[in-house]
Amino acid sequence: MRTILTICAAFLILSSQAFAAPKSDLWPIWDKSNESNSASFDHSHWQKILDKYLLEKGQHNLFNYNSVSPTDKALLSQYLTNLTALDPRNYSKAEQFAYWVNLYNALTVQLILDEYPVKSITKLGGFLSFGPWDDDVAKVAGQSLTLNDIEHRILRPIWNDSRIHYAVNCASLGCPNLATTAFSAHNSEALLEAAAKQFTNSNKGASIDGNTLTLSSIYDWYGVDFGSDEQEILKTIDRYRDGSKLEGWKGKIKYDYDWSLNQP
């Protein structure tokens, strides 16, 4: 009985913490590049998957996991195999950025497909885990990688760009949308700008109801990437908003996030 109570207590503690956002913590071995290499990665297989199964509906881009054929599951697997067989450090920094974003997003889709049907990505992972983010999901240049490694030990510390949070997708309705176009060295800036604009102007990014401003929990979890305090974070959000500006807000601020699967 004591063992069961101990396990239950641990589960309650984990649940109360919900999503503990990792800090940006550079993994130094990945902070290298070859700017003289003009070669590019082939993301065409990933684009085929996006074209076929990603649907734009209102403020959401929804992935039709239920309809993915065995052939296209194999195509996604082959894309990931091809991508992880290459060492991104041999390519330019611009190519690397697209590499890591596409790898993260494609791996996330594969994780959902492997366990589908599932109501939320938070249901994946080991016992007492809140999602699969600390599970080994790929091996690149002999190094085992988790999704958290890609986002918080590579992308965030190397590029220091808050818009990264609009680019990586966690297969949830509350998340910034999975882009309909695969990232590349040539379109990353445009896609980042479009993603930032789309999210900050959506209700899941920021919404006002009377005296209450509801922001995405992203601005709570990763607030340090958007500003040093609440008003600075609001100013950063305002850069992309078309409607009412948020800086100077004096009402109540709360945070929310919908972990439901991003499916039709």
UniProtKB/TrEMBL annotation:
Q: Record's superkingdom?
A: Bacteria
Q: Which UniProt keywords apply?
A: Signal
- Which residues, if any, are the signal sequence? 1-20
DUF547 domain span: 89-199
What InterPro entries does the record tag this protein with?
DUF547
Q: What is this protein called?
A: DUF547 domain-containing protein
This protein's species is: Grimontia celer
The beginning of the lineage is: Bacteria, Pseudomonadati, Pseudomonadota, Gammaproteobacteria, Vibrionales
